[in-house]
What does this fold into?
Amino acid sequence: MALFEGTFEKYHQGSGRVPGDANWPGAKMAYNSGKKFDIPGEIKFFLEQAKEAAKQVGSTITASTHKMQPAVGTPTGWNAYFEMFSQPALDNVPEVLLWKQYSRSLGYTHDVPYRVKVGCADGYTRAFVESFLMKSGKPKYADSNYKGDVSIADAKEGRDERLQLFVWDEKQLIDTDPTSPHSGKTYDDYGKDEKTGLQTHITNTNQEIRCITGYQPRKYYTYDYTQTPDDNRQGTDACPIFRVSEAMLNYMEADCELNNGNSIDETSKAYWKALRERAGVSPDFDATIAATDLNKEVDFGVYSGTNQVSKMLYNIRRERMNEMAGEGLRYADLIRWRSFDRMITKKWIPEGVNFWTEMYKSYGSDLKADESSDALVSSKAQGLYIRPYSRSMAASNELRDGYNWHEAYYLSPLGISDLRTAAADRDLKNSQMYQNVNWPAMAGGHAEK
It folds into this structure.
């Protein structure tokens, strides 16, 4: 919370979203009359609090065996780091500070492992996959060993092990449990149509299990077949909520922010090296910073507002994105960093795998990619990379040309009933609450800016 508040205030100053801004709506409230706000002091306070709280958590993290998959016949016990996200109980995992338990006997289960296995109408983006470093610690554009992305396996080879562990590729075993009828099959084997032998991961007509980008998440998958036989909520693995790694990343970011993005202390250095070593990446983060060209990075986190941040700060943001992927933090991070501003003037088109170089061949020659309302993939004319929301270019598809952003979206609007409840006579003019900037105080209103 302290890290969120400190960075939000830093990057949103002057937008009307921070107390004391010229267009801050709270200024008109009588209870704020005459108040002055020391925002720089608040930012410093919150960032220091973030560091202090994070340091109390410690630095004990789960070790990795650096194995990317289990052997056939051994569904468990192959990599404690991977299995931190795929075991029924986490009370003996020191890195996990808070977790949610499930129980088949109590009828309290979930469907996560099966959905990670077959697809869930989601997928990681090309930009996310491209953010991962090579094992040398260099970005992919700075390392001649990068194999390209003609296949997912190629894109992952020699890269950060978090990419290798937590994104499926064609060659990875999808079942190793001897009780599974699919034991020994690969991810690609599992995605083939039984009648035609053609691949269906990206083009499955069942929207619920289509991997829309081709980069299917693997975090939270378990090789325990009792949890993945079908879509009937057989999952009982625990869900980590807070991890020591997150606290370490909080410390690193707050520390870097307090030093204007230019330096970090010895504690941050130790944390950063530990996280990189677990991921199989060279611990020399200085070499990474030196090799980073922000103009070649495509991640939103390169920017706060319309300005590039320092190379050190961006690489800490990169570390956070790569470590915490799929754990529900990303949107809040981009909000507090004010990293969506460039979408106000230029739409963002999500992309996925390199489909039209080689991958398309495994999907058959009659693949429908004509930009019609029932097209299965985006057309080759749009580029080699899958554009999941541009499959149809019909006027009815509002996302065909990408996503845009409005200033108002950085804050959610308050409900009119809430504003009225804060007035003794339910008159909006007398409400003790005020609407967030760039949102109207009316039911059904739209963003004003």
User: Anything to note?
Assistant: The beta strands are 96-100, 239-243, 303-304, 307-308. The two ends are 27 Å apart (CA to CA).
